[in-house]
Structure formats: structure tokens, C-alpha cells
Amino acid sequence: MAINEVSDWVDPLLYAAGTATDITRRTVGDTTAWSGTTSERTPLTVLAWSPQPGVVLEVTTIDNDRPLDDLVALAEATSAIPLADWETKYTD
Known about the structure:
Elements: E1 2-5, H1 12-19, E2 21-28, E3 31-38, E4 44-52, E5 55-61, H2 68-76, H3 83-90
Antiparallel strand pairs: 1-5, 2-3, 3-4, 4-5
């Protein structure tokens, strides 16, 4: 699985519709998320959501046997933090 920041798409539904097919509504915490699959190059399952205004994230997997609940659980455990906080926490 991978987590990517895709905020340039502005909205999780817009991202999911532009990336995947057969999108469905999901819930991640208190927000609406969208999931679907794509078969470009490699089959990919996508879950897109916005943890806060202005931020759109996606979780993807190439494992077709991985339950979507796993992607939702990872999304719920993920938070966005400001770059300065990231650098303070994770750099020397």
C-alpha cells in the first residue's frame, strides 16, 4: 500500500472519478471518501479522502485480495501535518 498527497485535484470525488472506475462512497472517520479501481498498467485499488480542507490524500494498493477495510483503516490512522512540523519531528 502507498499513501500519496494529491491535493492538486482539490476534491476527493474529483480525484477518484478521474482516476478510477466504479467509484463508491466510503466513510473515513468523519469524512466522506471515495474508492474505485483502475487497470492502467497495473490493477490498482484507490481510496481518496480529505483529512482537512485543502488536503486530498489517497491510499492505493495493487493487492486485489486486500480488503478495502484495510485501506480505510490506514486512512483513519493517517493525519496531515504542516511541513515545518514534519521537518522538526523527522530531521536531525
